[in-house]
Amino acid sequence: MKRYCFLIITILLVSCSSEFLDIDPKGTMYAESFYATGDELEMAVTALYWSFQDWSEYSDDMVCTAAGNDKTSNFDNWKEVDVFDAESDNAELGLNYSDLYIMINSCNEILENYEDADASDAVKEVCAAQAHFFRAMAYFHLVRIYKMLPLVTSSSDAVLDLELTDSEEIYDVIISDLKIAETDLPDNWDSDSKRAGVAVTNGGAKSLLAYVYLCEAGYPVNKDGAYALAAAKAKDVIDNASTWGYKLMENIEDLYSADYNYENKSCDEVVLASYSENGYGCVKASMPGEYGGWQVYYAEINFFENYPECARKDAIFMSDFPMKDGTVKHYTELASGHPYYKQYWDGDDSKINWSKIWEGADWKNGRPQVLLTHANTLLVYAEAKVMSSGIVDATAEDALNQVRNRAGLPDVTTGLDAEAFRDSVVLERSYEFCGGYFTIDPWYDLVRLERVEKSIDNRDESENTIVNPITKRRYFSPYPYNDYAKNPNLTWGTWQK
Amino acid sequence: MKKNDFPDGFRKKWSMRKKIIMRIKLFAVLICFVGLTGSFASTAQTKLKLNIKNTTIKNVLNQIENQSEYSFMYDASKINVDRKINLTVENSSVEDILKIIFPNQNVFYRIIDRHIIISKKSDSESGNILFSQQYKKISGKVTDSSGASIPGVNVVLKGTKIITITDSEGRYSLANVFNDATLVFSFVGMKTQEIAVDGKTSVNVVMEETTIGIEEVIAIGYGTAKRSDITGSISSIPMELSKNQPVRGLSDLMQGRVAGIVQTTTNGDISGSSKIRIRGANSISGNNDPLYVVDGIIGGSYGSIHDVASVEVLKDASATAIYGERASNGVILITTKKASSSKPVIQFNMNTGFQSQNTNYDDKMNAAEYASVVNDIYSSTVFSDSEISDFEKTGGTDWVDMVMQSAIVNDHNISYSQKVNNKTGIYASGRYSDAQGAMINSKSGGDYSLRSRIDFEPAKNLKVSLDVKASRAKSKNGGNSTGINKSNSLFQALIWSPTEPVWDNEEEGEYHQYDSYSALWYNPYMKAMERDTWKISHNINATLDVKYDIFDFLSYNVLGYTSTSGGDSGSYNNSWLSPGDESADRSSYDNSSWRLINTIDFHKTFNNVHNVSAIAVYESEYEKKWSLSGTGKDLPVPDLSSYWDVGLSDTQSTSSGYSEGSRLAFLGRLNYNYMSRYYFTASYRLDAKSGPTNRVEENKWGGFPSFAVSWRLSEESFMEDSGFDNLKLRLGWGKTGNPCGWEYTTMTEKGYDYGIGANYMAYIPGTPANDNLKWETTTQIDAGLDVSIMKGKLSFSFDYYHKLTNDLLTSVELPMYYGYGYTASYSQNLGEIKNTGYEFTVDATPIQTKNLVWKLNFNISKYNNEVKDLGNEGAFLTGTTGEGLLSTKTYRVEEGLSLSTMWGYKCLGIWGTDETTEAAKYGEQPGDYKYEDVNGDGVISMDDDAQKIGDSNPDFTYGLSSSLSYKNFDFNILIQGLHGQDVFNVMRGVMASVHGDARMIMLKGPGEDYWTESNQDSEWPNIHSSSNTLRLNSTKWIEEGSWLKIRNIGVTYNIPRRYIAFADVAFTVSGQNILTLSKYKGFDPEVSASGSSDLWGGFDFGTVPIPKRITLGVNVTF
Predict the structure, then answer these.
(1) Max Cα separation, chain A?
(2) What is the predicted ipTM?
(3) How close, in Å, is residue A11 to chain B by CA atoms?
(4) Every domain of chain A and the residues it spans
């Protein structure tokens, strides 16, 4: 009998369960089981805002705009871009690419997993909508910098030999994402104290979508019908501006003033910005060394000199610099010899005393980094409306004039043909959005209208000498070496025959 | 025959003379005697010279013993040895002398080996020596297998102290013997036999010579086996060879004793650990340490090293595959002691060692020489002539001597062992040890371990044992000058100017803090003295083992084990080390685990020829780990709070950790042999480890098979008279694994504040994982030959192996579009490493007689390691830059190279004046270092001019250990050597150069005998050159690192019982690491800052050398 007891014991011990081997790591969050609850989705979405802020802090991720007319630089990686000589090892181009793909990966994981989460449909929907928005925003930046991209919309898409996808298809992804976002995002976040005034709304999605259409209408996609879509979408925002409180600030200074723009606040004109209480703003990026600035970029001399005198010019530029010793230096007397963009210098944490600028400037100023303003929507409408219909109508003129008048300029000349009107709008865009807008920088207008070659004619002779002849290839940046080395499909300019 | 087997009365009557002649020179020669052509039976025809007047026969016999190797045995009550005689002989044999001494007497003598037994012829008639009472008399004759009688055989009545010895004709008789008594016959070199009397009055015995070794039972995975039945490659540590060695840890026991193991001590610090590699390194990113199994428990603890009874090393896959996924690096099986004798044995073992360091760096300049070189380099009078002559008198500061110490090392052990009756055995032991470190202000201990093991048999066929072990260890300030840290004391001591003082104000305790000329870091003495770190670890574990014999051929065994271990540590950076930024850390951890092993064991012989044994095992295990640590900075009362209360600080941080893991395994093994001639073994283990739920299904369980065959030719009838006791061919194949790491994609926390200052938790996908990840698999083939001749007194073993590790874990660096940033990578199973090698072992017992036993073990082995495939991962540099000391890492992993290949520039010497133009191409001048421009592009660059400059893998390794017991003396020696490996002597490079971290030259050659136009043959560059480029990653600093060390040499004197009646007392004097033969120019070619890494090795970064030690030991056994 005893013998059988032992055999029974053995059998009991052998009866193992495979659950014994499936151990969830406690104290460690891991992707395979994350996104399971509403709280976890919420933390994943919060990370999108972190990612957005991380991307936009400092000014590294603006480097691709250095080739534009409005700014120039002597900072290595910026200068490479400025003179059309960027290589795959350009660290700041690489950083921008890396930051945006981190954001895309975070969005993809949410979008792949949110449906199975234990949360209400409403919560899931709004979480997904935010992920769609940020994925669209990230791809929209990338597609305009690289034209063709490794397209990853699910973690399983990422493979070592991924082929490049061309702009048209990427725009489809962007537009499809933004359509979901404009439908599912709320008008405002007033019911969520931390997000109120900060998080992306359906108004932001619509505003971005209008601009996306405008860009899609131009080079390299040249999409038929996109102008009309852009005009319609912009009109939708303009007509319903009160829903979101969008309006132009009466005084251009207020658009930039720290009184209206700090921490989780920005003025009514701002449609999309990243916020952080103690974030690393780009205050010092365009500040002369004489004030302790990094002088990463500054205004191109001819651009500044040709800029029409108006309140806007005073709000944006600094050309005379009060010095510690009581003197005032003209920009030509500065070591860098250039006027500076000062519109973001003022910050809440480091309030600028304009007569003692050297005292207050800090690189951490808690200032929102602005991507889109309502002025952009007005100018998108003006351009798209005219270009889609071929007729310069009053609504288009009115939209442009709203921006001009607020800047301190008179109405646009009437009776222009469509092309000339468009050029006026584009010129206005360059004046309105020069010097540090991530999304709507005048550089992108040069690309979509294929005006990069001509743009260099306007450069002051003293500026950096252009190194390479400008071809269509130079409209776009080389892929970071890190990726090109691992996946040779990422060869720069493969689309050029 | 143990001396204490004799009853005292008997000992007094019989005089067993011992020679106490220490012919140390002779033994030194014998010990080192490797060739085996000498004689095994020493019946030298000694010729004697005696001139004796009026002396007793007893004294004459004494003198003969002194002059010869003979010893006399006789019964003093029967032989009149007090008779006085006169005797003058010259050049006479012992036999001749005996004839003279015992003329016409009825005295018989017989010479057996070196024993001369003298007896009266009538003895054989009345053999009873001890007792007059007659119960039943039993008598008989003892012969050897050829029929010759053997005198001097011990005949013991089992279970009593009644004993007799066979007479000159091999006869014995014993009275007072009961019918059911058992007689035990024993004689040196013969198999002990037990024979039941069974009512007989006459018992004749044929003694058989023992064959050493092959009948021995050794541990194998999940069981034991006779050595002759082993089909795999298994080495046993020859424990008797280290009997009197003051062993402090397993590494002392193992080093130099097993072929196929490369074992080095990575530094001489108290934290110095041993690096053991069995048959080469298999893995780049995984672990290459062998798997330790203690009394059947994987990862068990053996407690005190003195409780280790035997150690077996499983080397080939047919032996290790039974341990499955963790067995790729070989398995070390440790079996601990248990009670074996019914007599209580209490043993005290006390060892105290005196340790010292050679602090003289051969060609380091003294203060006066150094001051002159400073003047030369600066081309000005930094030191005046009078200062220099003062330095000549005082000698300046010997920094190395200041930071190292002579130390005392203790190890005391007590054990008690007894089989109380046939059913209960008790073994208990306790150990205390401590050690002062080689570096000042460092020590380990007191370390304690306690153990208690009880074996009992509660019912028939049921055996139970409970083994409980507890231990605790402490150390203080370990790790100063190990690893890569430029501020380490020995590194700094070698580059601090000897012209700098230790103290600014010794009375006030103010250290001198800055070196004006050379070093940049801390005063090394200050660093060593002010350092304040400590560690404590403890472990308690218990094993319950229950075995039930269901039938005589089938048993069931369940073994349960539980262990809890933990530790605490603290460190404090005071104001000397961290002025104004004092900080303190305090941390602790706690691990617990359990194991459950169920085994069914079957063994049966069918038809007397088919021997079958099989096991089936189900095993499960689980472990859980916790950790907690806290750091305090900005300490308002630093010395008071320190690590005692890190909470007394203005800035604090805490962290904690948790992990758990489990495993399941099913395994089985079948052994079959036909008439002990043809052997077949197969084993299979199905292994599973806990992991992510989403891991690929087919990778959850791994199967690890093995097969082996062997053929004992010596058992074949055609080999009957061949003289081989054992001749066996072995062939084995098997697969083993090396586990992979964690396979979850972890989320990384990124707090975000939405611009309102409150931190909201946010998570982004952090480190990517590969769901397809699995273990590395090593496939090994082993072919071996075992030979044993001369009754096992000489045996050889040879093995060849071929190991291929595939599914090697290599790293895939990911493009950024995966969304994990710049540096993301994950592991994948793609790559291959090959190891091949040979091993050769000789075990010999050249002499085995009553008074003289000489044993030796020699082993030599060689391995070749080669990276065959790195998957998608390109070749990469690895190792260290030594905190920026070197411009690049200096080891390379590349397909076609072995792991730990040194990589850098080839230094071609110094540019001469006749090469001025050529040198100018490189921006250099005559007197500068010249490096090989491999591609001839006129630029020296890592991309195309770096090459293999060295290899830290040895060409071959060897060990020789020998023990010689002569009467009451035991001598033993252990020699270990590694040959043909290179050492990257970075320390010397820094000392010989003007460098950012050591701004002055410290060595005579480069300081005084440097290149000038009139000294163009110098190997040292012109110190006044401004164009010289120093490349520390060059052949200039690669040295041949071959070494031979006397690991241990010792002599033990066992005090005879006649001096101390109550106990066996032995004194041992021994030396450890007392001699190193090497051409290496640094302190010690064995140590390396790389620790246990296999990607780089042989890297001297001012690493603590291994100290010499003299140990005094006393062993008392009751």
Answers:
(1) 111
(2) 0.93
(3) 10
(4) 8-185+476-484, 283-367
